[in-house]
Design brief:
Blueprint (H helix, E strand, L loop, with lengths): L1 H33 L3 H4 L16 H12 L5 E5 L2 H4 L10 H8 L4 E4 L7 H11 L4 E6 L16 H9 L6 H7 L5 H12 L1 H4 L1 H8 L2 H7 L13 H10 L1 H10 L12 H15 L3 E6 L4 H7 L4 H14 L3 E4 L17 H16 L1
Parallel strand pairs: 1-2, 1-3, 3-4, 4-5
Helix pairs in contact: 5-18, 6-15, 14-16
């Protein structure tokens, strides 16, 4: 009796294993077919725009490599954070890159921005892409020069980028950022890239997590904790919530001049400018518009001095630069810096005029 039971148990285990393997293959095949790639959308994780999860899926990196390898046109490569990505709109066509792509059809436009992206991210992309026939449009953000980089474990997109581009991190930068990629990070990263369900997990995350889970995971992308993830709610939330305004005033515009000794982001901006100069890259750095109606309430005396320093540092290195801080009407902002479609259109028009000249 016990021998027969043992035989049945082994068969059952085999059936379970076969069914699990078949399910795993089926799920991964479905993900490979139905989840949009960067090549299909023209930007990293475009399908996630309305969910405010604009970070890179691992699959995006291979998509970008494939596109660049077969693209013979002159390129405009946009590096930036949520402002350049277009977190305030629902479609690529309404973002800065969408308007630039429409206005300059002779160029291939790549939007490699992601939410929370910082100077380290831009530096890594430039090192990887320095041999491309491209104009690099690099959007910096005032608030990143006012805060330090934070722990990489708290910033999924940057940890992923750092692991992906670890070979481009020189020792001086590695010491500056105070974090490093472990062997376990590299192993996990490599295995994840081979499994579609893992390499697309950023994309899958918004489809299967409930609203509370999404809020907990991406809380750092919001100025508070909105009750819903819908774009319609965010527009009301961004425009009306007083706590968002107090948050930005307290954190984003401190009364001090930027200092590379105290802030790794300021230091990395200088390192990046030096890299652009040394490699004779065609690059244009920008400081985006800010909502003056809001910023004026919490403006510190150092604000304009810091923006001027940003421009002067670029000029010293022979790098083209623009600061659009007063250039877009307050009604086109969703908060202190994120723009709606019309605001993106205006900013894109000014950028086009500058880079074409």
């Amino acid at each position: 009796m016990f021998e027969q039971s043992s035989t049945v148990s082994h068969k059952r285990i085999i059936r379970i294993f076969v069914c699990a393997a078949a399910f795993f293959i089926l799920i991964n095949a479905g993900i490979s077919v139905f989840i949009p790639s960067y090549e299909q959308t023209g930007r990293a994780s475009e399908m996630l725009l309305s969910n405010n999860v604009c970070n890179f899926s691992l699959a995006d990196f291979s998509d970008i490599d494939n596109m660049l390898a077969h693209d013979t046109k002159r390129k405009i490569i946009i590096l930036g954070d949520s402002v350049a990505y277009g977190i305030g709109v629902e479609h690529e066509a309404q973002s800065i890159s969408g308007y630039i792509r429409n206005a300059l059809p002779d160029y291939s436009v790549y939007n490699l921005s992601s939410c929370g992206s910082k100077p380290l991210d831009y530096y890594l992309w430039l090192k990887k892409l320095k041999d491309e026939d491209a104009l690099f449009l690099i959007q910096y953000n005032y608030k990143w020069f006012a805060t330090d980089n934070g722990e990489l474990r708290d910033r999924v997109s940057q940890k992923r980028l750092l692991t992906q581009f670890n070979e481009y991190v020189d020792e001086s930068v590695r010491k500056s950022i105070g974090n490093h990629v472990t062997h376990m990070d590299i192993v996990s990263h490599t295995v994840s890239r081979l499994i579609p369900a893992a390499s697309h997990k950023t994309s899958l995350f918004v489809h299967f997590f409930n609203e509370k889970s999404k809020e907990d995971v991406i809380e750092h992308l919001f100025f508070g904790k909105p009750e819903k993830q819908s774009m319609a709610y965010k527009k009301r939330y961004w425009k009306e919530k007083d706590e968002m305004k107090r948050f930005n005033c307290a954190i984003s515009y401190p009364n001090q001049l930027w200092d590379a000794e105290r802030n790794v982001n300021v230091a990395l901006y200088q390192v990046t400018l030096a890299f652009i100069e040394e490699n004779n890259l065609d690059a244009h750095v920008i400081m985006p518009p800010y909502n003056q109606e809001l910023v004026d309430r919490c403006m510190k005396t150092s604000f304009r001095e810091n923006v001027q320093w940003f421009i002067d540092e670029a000029s010293r290195r022979g790098v083209e630069s623009s600061a659009y801080i007063d250039s877009v009407d307050e009604r086109y902002f969703l908060d202190d810096m994120h723009l709606n479609s019309e605001g993106n259109n205006q900013l894109a028009t000014m950028i086009i005029n500058d880079i074409v000249q």
